[in-house]
Specification:
elongated, Hemagglutinin Ectodomain, Chain B, 3-stranded mixed β-sheet, alpha+beta, 3 helices, 206 residues
Length: 206
Amino acid sequence: MKKADGNNLASWWSKTKKRMSKEKKAPDTENPEMTAESAEVADTTTATDGATTATEGEDVAAGLRAQIDELNQKYLYLMSEFENYKRRTSKERLELFKTASKDLVVELLPVLDDFERGLQVMETATDVGSVKQGVDLVYTKFRQVLQGKGLSPIEASGTMFDPELHEAISQAPAGEEQVNKVIQEVEKGYRLGDTVVRYAKVIVGV
C-alpha cells in the first residue's frame, strides 16, 4: 500500500513539474481577441489621421491657388490701366503741342497782315519817316505777342560774362574795368520762362 502511494506521489510530482515547465516556457501574451481588436483600432486611427492630413493639405493648396488667381487678375488689371494711361497721356501731350503752336500762330497772323500791308505801302511810299513809323508799330506788336507767350530778352551788354546765358564768339582788348565783361552783343539771346532758348552771342573784354 505504501509502495502504491509512493508511485502515485512520484507521478503527481512529475506531472506538476511538466506543467510548471510549460507555464514557464509559454509567452506572457494578452488575450488574442483583445490584441486583434487593439490592432484594428490602431489601424483605423492611423488611417483617419492620414485622411485628415490629406484633406487639410488640399484645403491649403486650394486657398493658395485662389490667392494666385486673384493676384494675377489684379496684375492684369493694373497693366491694362497703365497701358491706357500711357496712351492717354501721349495723346494729350501731342494735342497740347499742337494746340500751343496753333495759339501762337493765330496770335501772329495779325502781325503778318501788318507786314504785308507795310510792304504794299513801301512800294509807293515817298515819305521814309511814315514807313519807319509803320515798321516800328509792327515790330512792337510782334514783340508784345512773343512776350505774352513768356519770351524775354537776355541782358548782355555791360554785364559780366555768364556761360549759362552768353556764348563768347570772340575776345577783344579792353580796359581793366571791362575784363570778363560783355563789350558787344552780336546776337540777342532769349529766355522762354526760365529756360534759355537761345544764348546771347557776345564779344568779351580781356
